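Note to self: keep these together.
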Amino acid sequence: MKTSLVVLAAGIGSRYGGGIKQLEAVGPSGEIIIDYSIHDALEAGFDKVIFIIRQDLDEDFRRIIGDRIAKICEVDYAYQEITKLPEGFTVPEGRKKPFGTAQALLCAKDVIREPFAVINADDYYGKEAYRTLHEYLVSHEGCEDGKLSGAMVGFILKNTLSDNGGVTRGVCRLGENGGLAGVDETKNIIRTPEGAAVMTDGGVVPIDPDSLVSMNMWGLYPGFLDAFEEGFPAFLADPANDPLKAEYLLPIEIDRLLREDRAKIRVLSSPDKWFGVTYQEDKASVREAFSRLIADGVYATPLM
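Structure:
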């Protein structure tokens, strides 16, 4: 069965200082995080890569990574643009950013034709995550008991925090038999001496550092794209959403499908430690982490 790796790489990276953080070198031979992700995915059995990028990144992206990856596997592109909206909708005046990760997948709907994994371009998930996710995708059919079926790789919250500022994480609520009951998208989670806390307008609220969180690593089937397409107009028309800032996010939409009893999501756990580049200051620690992985024999250098 053919499977694709969908790489979400259209983020503007405002917290990173406006740079193109997805294209920053972190490996000793100039590798970027996406290099390691694709290496692990191909090793696990994925055979196609779909990059979702901004149109203005196209030339740099192809030069730095896309053309290299096209030499070792099938590659396709989709472009997330703020103007790609359902019929009857226009971009709110003053809106600058695209509409989030679920919209990004809709922008790639025409090129996603097989079971697929979704990842963030600036996150490192580890080898085991790809192995377990690929195994799930090839052993299921995308529908179970009349519902959309998929999987999510969960990580321990305390292993996903930045030392340099607050982060947004999808805090998971678990149901029966290893299923996902819901995802609470939680902003401004910080590391504290006690473990972790959420920075709110009312102060600092402790949160269980051992909570399972989504790092936007999902195993889905094309039927989910139809469900996201159906929900997008309601999101855009909802007066409760800030027209300038609200985002149509993948974990929030999957949570909606769970609440509507239209989907079943299996939670797959990974022992690997996540790390990524959210802030400029994170780059040094990520470089050190890859140096340790290379020293331990997990990766060769150069990688590919």
